[in-house]
Write a structure and sequence with these properties.
By secondary structure, the protein is mainly α. It is built from eight helices and three strands; from the N terminus they run αααααβββααα. The radius of gyration is 17 Å and the shape is globular.
């Protein structure tokens, strides 16, 4: 198999009380695993069989004949990125160099938080909200993507993401997506991961 399910970077109970062990059992163990299994089945006996995940995503993006490969492989990548975007005892403020850039590009940290919340809350149906770096104008931006869409295919550098598919929060928050988003920002964001992505 060229694509495998990565381990979570923490124990399944580590994000409680904000994200429950039960949510992670379903979200990582069932949903993420299904995307991995589907990707491997779909690329079997094709030129992408031995390719790395980012190559699979970029080669299948915008190709109607490969939409299944794209949807599943991009979801594998997005989910892996999401697990690293959160951590136990996360949230708060980013390290100074990233904070300075956020203030420079958004006007204030509060403006960034409001824009991020708005993107995550207004993504209709399933999808993602992202903090990205746009190399074309060297600015940080907030974007939202539907379903499996990912900044990788838009020449943007993702720094962190929130998963707003219902399976990410429904067991813990039911239909209260805004509460999940607030909790993500206050208690879960892994700013060190975002800084590492920004610096690279």
């Amino acid at each position: 198999m060229s694509v495998t399910l990565p381990d979570l970077p923490y124990e399944k109970k580590a994000l409680e009380p904000y994200i429950s062990e039960k949510t992670l059992e379903f979200h990582h163990g069932k949903h993420h695993q299904a995307y991995v299994t589907n990707t491997n089945n779909l690329i079997q006996n094709t030129p992408l069989e031995k390719a790395d995940l980012e190559t699979i995503i970029k080669e299948s993006a915008n190709d109607p004949s490969k939409v299944g490969i794209f949807n599943n492989s991009a979801q594998v990548w997005n989910h892996t990125f999401y697990w690293h975007s959160i951590k136990p005892k996360g949230g708060g403020e980013p390290p100074k160099s990233l904070m300075d850039k956020i203030i420079s590009d958004f006007g204030s940290f509060d403006n960034f938080k409001n824009e991020f919340k708005q993107a995550a809350a207004t993504q209709f149906g399933s999808g993602w909200a992202w903090l990205v770096y746009d190399p074309s104008d060297k600015k940080l931006k907030v974007i939202k993507t539907p379903n499996a869409e990912t900044p990788l295919t838009k020449n943007l550098k993702p720094l962190l993401t929130i998963d707003v598919w219902e399976h990410a929060y429904y067991l813990d928050y039911q239909n209260r997506r805004p509460d999940y988003i607030d909790t993500f920002i206050q208690h879960l964001i892994n700013w060190e991961f975002a800084l590492k992505n920004y610096e690279s």
